[in-house]
């Protein structure tokens, strides 16, 4: 691996633990002003010291985040459909590689829809983005999105994750599921889990704990942090699981104390 590529990945996945807490606030590119992110800067800035990287769109980065921050940026580069579209996540390249470089990003993130009607379309666009990013030593994070008719089980998620890695993703984001070992053991690149819809804080901590203990390299969590009753307490509790090996009870106690 060339130095630039290795350095970018090491900035995201901390070499001393092999883990990462990605804080995802890219929802606006298809969901608009998501609950908790209406004033994105007010939510995000106090939480940044606890995040290993920040995943967001170029618009959010330019409009809400000062260029003085010292956090690796994972730039959402796929897009093109909204939650109002029946073909939601039928995405193409929404940011060219030149602008990603201009924004000094540590990685680019692209959603793929394995098993959807337009699978070939999203996968070939994904590989085009990978070719562009690899040319400049920028890793691509594959976001394995799941269509409405697909089941988020280990069989499907291991297929989507392995496929993403074999097509060139350097990091894969997927969902936690039963038999998650199968996803981890058959994917040759680091796997992080998405948080998903808001669930009770202790359940979100438990999901993060199980994923980490099974071998996930981290979490790419958004709503379960910024929609928590206390986002600042929650990001620290999730961090304690990802980077400090806290148990669920210890992390929830930390959350409750900080809240
Ligand atoms: C979804 O495609 C977006 O990339 C989100 O950033 C991602 O799903 C993580 O956010 P959440 O934890 O809210 O699901």
Give the SSE string. Answer: HEHHEHEEEHEHEHEHEHEHHH
- Terminus-to-terminus distance: 42 Å
Q: Can you list the ligands bound to this structure?
A: ribose-5-phosphate
Largest sheet, strands/sense/barrel: 8 strands, parallel, barrel
What overall form do the CA principal axes indicate? globular
Give the helix level as a range of percent. Answer: 40-55%
The CATH architecture assignment turns out to be Alpha-Beta Barrel
CATH T-level topology: TIM Barrel
State the total count of DSSP E strands.
10
Describe the fold and architecture.
The chain is of the alpha/beta class and 259 residues long. It has helices at 3-12, 28-31, 40-44, 58-64, 97-102, 119-135, 154-166, 180-185, 201-214, 223-226, 231-244, 248-258; strands at 20-24, 53-56, 73-76, 78-79, 92-93, 107-113, 140-145, 171-174, 191-194, 218-221. Helix 9 (201-214) runs antiparallel to helix 12 (248-258). The longest helix has 17 residues, at 119-135. The chain is globular, with a radius of gyration of 17 Å. Ribose-5-phosphate is lined by residues 24, 26-27, 55, 111, 143, 145, 194-196, 220-224.
Structure keywords:
two-stranded antiparallel sheet, TIM Barrel, single chain, alpha/beta, binds ribose-5-phosphate, 259 residues, globular
């Amino acid at each position: 691996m060339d130095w630039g590529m290795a350095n970018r990945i090491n900035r995201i996945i901390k070499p001393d633990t092999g883990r990462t807490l990605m804080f995802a606030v890219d929802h606006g590119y298809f969901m608009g002003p998501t609950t908790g992110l209406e004033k994105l800067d007010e939510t995000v800035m106090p939480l940044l010291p606890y995040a290993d990287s920040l995943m967001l769109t170029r618009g959010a980065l330019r409009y809400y985040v000062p260029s003085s921050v010292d956090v690796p940026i994972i730039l959402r580069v796929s897009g093109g459909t909204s939650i109002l579209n029946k073909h939601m996540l039928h995405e193409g390249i929404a940011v060219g590689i030149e602008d990603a470089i201009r924004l000094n990003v540590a990685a680019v993130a692209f959603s793929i829809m394995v098993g959807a009607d337009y699978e070939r379309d999203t996968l070939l666009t994904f590989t085009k983005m990978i070719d562009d990013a690899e040319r400049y030593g920028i890793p691509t994070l594959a976001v394995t999105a799941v269509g409405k008719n697909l089941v988020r089980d280990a069989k499907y998620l291991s297929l989507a994750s392995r496929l993403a890695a074999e097509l060139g993703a350097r990091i894969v984001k997927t969902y936690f599921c039963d038999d998650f070992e199968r996803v981890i053991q058959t994917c040759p690149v680091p796997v992080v889990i998405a948080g998903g819809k808001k669930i009770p804080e202790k359940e979100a901590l438990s999901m993060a704990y199980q994923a980490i203990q099974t071998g996930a390299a981290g979490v790419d969590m958004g709503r379960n942090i910024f929609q928590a009753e206390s986002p600042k307490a929650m990001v620290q509790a999730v961090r304690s699981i990802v980077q400090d090996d806290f148990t669920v009870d210890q992390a929830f106690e930390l959350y409750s104390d900080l809240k």
